[in-house]
UniProtKB/TrEMBL annotation:
SUPFAM superfamilies: Metalloproteases ('zincins'), catalytic domain (SSF55486). InterPro entries: Zincin_1, Zincin_1_sf. Signal peptide: none annotated. Gene3D superfamilies: 3.30.2010.20. It comes from Brevundimonas staleyi. This is Metallopeptidase family protein.
């Protein structure tokens, strides 16, 4: 099979924030039902990068090191008698996700977006990174 000429990429654009939002919505809609129900009212937001304050809060300097972040109280910490003070949010960071996708080259972009989304919703459910990794290893 011939290798594509670099010229064939002249008309290609990086997926936009809207493209990422669509892929994240598709990933959310495809979640297994117990996981999807537990996600509840989580707001999914797509930004190019985390801001400096967010990076500092997780002890990172390089904005390419953060692909996603959960912000809010996990469901086990919420007051059962009222709503959370503000909605729980999952942030997906487009540029670091694109960078990971390009560097890996072995999985599709939608798969990486789905992985980051599931990871951050896991935090919403009160799971830590080790719990999430163990669940993913079972699949």
């Amino acid at each position: 099979m011939p290798i594509a000429s670099p010229d064939t990429w002249n008309d290609q654009l990086a997926p936009s924030l809207d493209d990422f939002a669509r892929l994240a919505r598709e990933a959310f809609d495809a979640l297994p039902e117990p996981f999807k129900s537990a996600a509840g009212d989580v707001v999914i937001r797509v930004d190019d990068f985390a801001d400096a304050e967010t990076l500092a809060s997780v002890d990172l300097e390089d904005p390419f090191d953060l692909t996603g972040l959960y912000h809010g109280f996990h469901i086990g910490e919420r007051d059962g008698f009222g709503p959370a003070a503000e909605p729980s949010r999952v942030f997906l960071y487009r540029r670091p996700i694109l960078d990971e996708w390009c560097e890996r080259g072995d999985v599709g972009l939608a798969e990486i977006i789905s992985h980051v989304l599931i990871h951050e919703i896991g935090h919403h459910m009160g799971l830590d990174d080790d719990d999430i990794d163990a669940i993913e290893a079972e699949d």
